[in-house]
Amino acid sequence: MDFSFSEEQQMLQSSVSKFVQKDYDFESRCGLVDSDNGFSKEHWQLFAELGWLMVPFTEEDGGLGGSAVDLMVVMEEFGKGMVIEPFLTTAVLAGGLIAASASEEQKLQLLGPLMEGKLQLAFAYSEPQSRFNLADISTTAELQGDNYLLNGHKAVVLNAEAADQLLVAVRTAGEQFDRDGISLFLVNTNTAGIAIQSYKTVDGFRAAEVRFDKVSVPAANLLGEAGKALPVIEKLIDRATLALCAEAVGAMEVTYKKTVEYTQTRKQFGVSISKFQALQHRMADMFIECEQARSILMMAAMQLDANQGIAPKAVSAAKSRIGKAARLIGQEAVQLHGGIGVTDELDVGHFFKRLTTVQFLFGSTDFHTQRFSRL
Q: Are strands 222-223 and 182-188 parallel, antiparallel or unpaired?
């Protein structure tokens, strides 16, 4: 079986890699993290001009193909620079939900501006009590005339502060844990009754608590069939999980390489610590974990492409394996760097924070291990 990238994928990889190396150094990223927006609008517009925002979408929707392997190529390179721009939340997750569930008219209104870099989105699905159960939704939407009234609380909504519109998973029927009765609505963030409390996460990204108090939304803003949104949500969360895993693989590669480089320059007892056999073994383990993670990532991406985007067992296998690798590589990198490894001045500590967050986003390592076992 041929695992090599196509010529187009190699060009895409080269394009993203050059951007990260030339325009996304560690100091620049730190500046963006501390800025008012939390990311660069200029970079976002560049993503649109280079066609990267079209990568997650099919040609029928105006994109470049939409394969999971293409998405993996982009996200792995983004991971090497800890790119802070909301590509995952806006283009992959929210954009993917629109492509999968919206009407043709809604797609025309939303996907074009998104791919042109003119529309920011966020997906509000998780609630304080729900943890990783996508069916645990207590936020409600009640039909009153031609509008729905939304009430509830969504937690850790990535990119909510910068979003122009929110995709909100709500319950229009049934009880809190029922799989049926979950619907998707498109809601403008400036609608009366919405309260957004934004904060910076431990890895430098932005998230928010979003509360809905009698928020009136036109019935025309419903995406897809009422009460039947959960299978679409599960499919797109799995796709986002794969993208996150690809980002983690890129971050792990840089982390272990920087650790090897540091041990070659750091001297103890008159020799570089890379000469110590015990440390050589630990760095060899880091390399092996990274390569195993890359292999299972490729397997999951190919499974998604071969099964019309539905491969939950493969995705959980990848998330479980990569989560364990992220923990080992991140912790070993910090320990082998010593005290400097946890300072804000060194990028290794920031890679460690991102790799730690990756272990819990879209389902923890333990959650996906158990899900794999069930499947």
A: antiparallel
Per-residue confidence (pLDDT) for residue 339, from 0 to 100: 84
DSSP class of 274: G
Cα→Cα distances 14→71, 296, 317, Å = 14, 22, 28
35: three-class secondary structure by DSSP: coil
Residue 231 phi, psi (nearest 5): -60, -35
Q: Are strands 165-171 and 182-188 parallel, antiparallel or unpaired?
A: antiparallel
Rounded Cα gap, residues 373 and 375, in angstroms = 5
Domain boundaries, position 271: 231-374
DSSP letter assigned to residue 167: E
Query: What is the reported pTM?
Result: 0.95
Weakly modelled stretches of the chain, pLDDT under 70:
1-2
> In CATH, what number is assigned to the domain containing residue 149?
2.40.110.10
Burial of 298 (0-12, 13-18, 19+ CB in 10 A): middle
Alpha-helical regions (H) of 58-131:
68-81, 95-101, 104-115
CA 61 to chain centre: 21
Whether 2 maps to a domain, the answer reads no
109 and 215 fall within a common domain: no
The reported pLDDT for the residue numbered 270 is: 84
Beta partners for residue 200, in sequence order = 206
Q: Is 199 in the same domain as 271? A: no
Task: Summarize pLDDT for 111-166 with one digit per residue, the tens.
Answer: 999 999 999 999 999 999 999 999 999 999 999 989 999 999 999 999 999 999 99
